[in-house]
Amino acid sequence: MKRILRILLVVAAASVPGVARADPVPPAPAPPAPKAPIAPKVPKECGAYVHLADAKVSTLQATGKVKSITARQEPRRFEIVVADAKGDQSFALSIVPEPLPFKVGDALDVSVRRGGGWHRVYDALIKDGSGKILIVASGSGADDWADGWKVTTGKVVQSEQNPNTKQQSLRRTHALDFARGKANATVAPDRCALLQDGADRYLVSGSGHSWLGERPPEGVDYQTFSMLRR
Length: 230
Known about the structure:
By secondary structure, the chain is mostly beta strands. It has one helix spanning 2-15, and strands spanning 47-51, 59-72, 77-84, 87-96, 107-115, 121-128, 133-138, 150-161, 169-180, 183-187, 193-197, 200-213, 222-229. The protein has one domain (47-229).
């Protein structure tokens, strides 16, 4: 009987006006899951090549604002003039994919040097006004301008017999190996790849070449690569 009376008293109290009832508190909604960073799209082709129009000039160092950019066709290239304290400095740049990572009025620090022997090639390092690397183009294959990345000739992916001799004379094409600290990547010839180490991301391409067996007079071992910041 006492139990029944206690139940009746509770019900009666709940029905009295002005007496608040403690409704259950709904749980707080869960925070949204963090979105994963979106990786940049990797094009099928990428690369950069720099050259100097004057064959007598072997180096160029220009620091200043971009004065003009002129697009040329066949082959596709951009002729760029930088207003340096020593006077206007110009160089030509071929790049895929476009557009250029700078525009007229932007500050640049450009270094170009000639490499190779009878066949002219150029190495280039292009930085923005803050010193951040935008483009590395290594026609000689040297990696001292490659933002700390070590670039070496990797595995053979293709071999082609020299048709001018019956002796073994194989022109071999190699992938390239990129390494910096704990980060590393292998880049296949004629392909574009995304190279990443921390906040640094580059589109990279390149290849290595060597000879096995009889070497023709023009046969040299070399590598070439480029890096475009993304």
